[in-house]
Design brief:
There is one protein chain. The chain is an alpha/beta fold. It has two domains: about 210 residues, TIM Barrel (Alpha-Beta Barrel); about 110 residues, Beta Barrel (Lyase, Ornithine Decarboxylase, Chain A, domain 1), CATH 2.40.37. It is built from ten helices and 16 strands. Strand 6, helix 6 and strand 7 form a beta-alpha-beta unit. Helix 4 packs across helix 5. Bound molecules: pyridoxal-5'-phosphate (PLP). The site of pyridoxal-5'-phosphate has 13 residues, from strand 9 and helix 9.
Length: about 350
């Protein structure tokens, strides 16, 4: 019997998704980075993607980039460096996204100590209010960066649709382009990486509306799940079932649909609500909140109703399924980003490559 729970990764479909996005980007002269954090920098998956013509690997965690040190592609650190990881950043990262001059001073010192020049991209906050310097601080910060000998400013970037859910458009990304040009002129330097966001920027590329100077986007979800994330549309010529979760039935019984007794709080402190549908056939699967997020799994068998989960159990209603399930049967799910992230991170979920 195959191990459960497991994620089946269809590398062929993943390659097709990558091809589609690489092609889309190349038409607009954009060099995409693959963002590997959702699959923890898994080497087989990264390999399948870079083979399709991506030469920049981005991750939020230095651990994952360290794991990929054997790859010749340039490594980009997406999360602002922590003071406690400066040494690792210089060792395992070629380019880091930054917004704090104090951190960049430490990066510079450490790089000089190691006889390296570390590349930095200055992040600009154009409204999403996650990371980045505010507009009024841009030129001053650039001036400070240019004093540091161990780091080289190679570009500017922004991140949108993450904290504030701001959608990229010609106004905010137009600003990014304008600031890039102004920095080049004012300081007489050349910026080679103008990084215009994540999978939420894909729709702009598709419509040919990306400002011309923007030559990079950092793509996770678009390649992995085939979604553009500004409006949640599926991208043409992509698969949304590259990753599938397989879980096994460990209990199968007919039970009432409303618990018996006084209702308190569940294992996560919530008061559950139940609809009385009479006696139903329910299956318990050996996977839970430690491995999945309930709002982002979708049974392939559409007659299955998801009832709920605890840390280690997923409870589903199989009454309406034409198939006669039995103990030990496997049930398969497609997933959205939350479950992709959590299941790939869970050490209890096995990985199988198809
Ligand atoms: C996670 C992340 C990305 C990738 O986001 P997707 O929506 O998966 O494309 C890009 N840039 C930064 C800074 C990130 O943290």
């Amino acid at each position: 019997m195959k191990k459960c729970p497991r994620i089946e990764v269809n590398l062929e479909k993943l390659k097709e998704n990558t091809k589609t996005l690489v092609h889309l980007c190349s038409k607009e002269n954009i060099r995409p980075a693959i963002v590997t954090k959702a699959f923890c920098g898994d080497e087989r998956i990264t390999r399948a993607i870079v083979e399709e013509g991506i030469d920049l690997i981005g991750d939020a965690r230095t651990e994952n980039l360290k794991n990929l040190a054997g790859f010749k592609e340039e490594k980009l650190l997406l999360r602002l460096p922590m003071m406690s990881e400066i040494s690792h950043v210089i060792d395992y990262v070629d380019i880091s996204l930054n917004s704090e001059i104090d951190t960049m001073k430490e990066l510079s010192k450490e790089a000089l100590r190691k006889n390296k020049v570390h590349k930095v991209v200055l992040m600009l906050d154009l409204g999403d209010l996650r990371e980045g310097v505010l507009e009024e601080d841009i030129f001053f910060t650039v001036e400070e960066i240019l004093k540091l000998k161990g780091i080289k400013l190679i570009g500017v970037g922004t991140n949108l649709t993450c904290f504030g859910a701001v959608i990229p458009d010609e106004i905010n990304l137009g600003k990014l382009e304008r600031y890039a040009k102004e920095i080049e002129k004012k300081f007489n330097i050349e910026l080679s990486l103008i990084s215009g966001g994540n999978s939420s920027s894909v729709y702009l590329i598709g419509q040919g509306r990306m400002p011309k100077r923007i030559n990079n986007v950092r793509l996770g979800e678009a390649i992995l799940l085939g979604n553009e994330t500004a409006y949640g549309e599926k991208i043409e010529n992509t698969h949304n079932d590259v990753f599938q979760l397989v879980a096994q039935i460990i209990e199968l019984k007919e039970k009432p649909s409303v618990p018996i007794g006084e209702i308190g709080k569940d294992a996560f402190g919530n008061v559950p609500l139940f609809e009385d549908r009479g006696i139903r056939e329910r299956a318990i699967l050996g996977v839970g909140k430690q491995d999945i997020m309930l709002d982002s799994i979708y049974p392939i068998d559409e007659n299955i109703i998801i009832l709920g989960s605890s840390s280690d159990h997923l409870i589903v209603d199989v009454t309406d399924c034409p198939r006669e399930y039995k103990i030990g049967d496997e049930i398969k799910f497609n997933m959205a980003y939350g479950t992709l992230l959590r299941s790939m991170t869970s050490k209890y979920v096995h990985k199988e490559y198809l």
